[in-house]
Predict the structure.
Amino acid sequence: MSENTEARDVIDVAQEAVGAQQLEHGIYFNHRDGKLVDIRDQLLEDEQRVPARKHGLYTVTDIPSFVSALAKHGIDQTEVWALDSASQIRAVVNAHQGAGKEAGHQDHIITLALQRTDDWKQWTERDGKLSPQLEFAEFIEDHLPNFVDPSGADMLELAQTFQATTKVDFDSSQRLKSGETQLTYAENTTATAGKKGSIAIPDTFQIALQPFERGDTYKVQARFRYRIANGSLLLGYRLTRPKDVLRDAFDQVVAKVGADTGRQVWSTT
């Protein structure tokens, strides 16, 4: 079968499938975006060894890769955009040119998709939530490297205290001058005959978190939260303005990308 015959067969199939329109200068079919495309031109482009122009969507996850990709493909009309809400930076390589100049296709795009660390996701997911003391103690033990003040060693001791007092009835709390809160309890086993005790917890603590993979580390303040309900103790924390920390971390990335690429970075939500 000749190449012309094969091309004709493809055109016939396309016509039947999408209702192609016969015009004077070519055979057209309706594309998904509503445009009319010459099937002969499409066949020609498919057969070319090298595309007529660059296009495609590419995603990287770190600054050096983004800077390198932009250095390789960037041109004068390339625009770089910071998408605050998505924590992404997007380079439109073939963007529109200036006023009075040719428009660009805007379909060759390199995206820097910053990845949030597991620690950041885990701490922010529990922010403001209360949980049973054993569950909270296990969370502390799993995240000891994050604690700055009190230290990880001090927080481990506190977690072990929570684990050792799961079979008691908490009945009251008192704010101490030292900046701690004292929780009092009575053991509810017959052997100890209601022996009383107390636990002192800090009102606030400080942790070190890295919002983005390979990014800067920030000190984040948090407040202990607790509730006594029917003798049971529920524990949690409230991070201090974590969105501000995330925004600042992203701003630092934007500034570095601008400096490393030598390009203006436009901001959008």
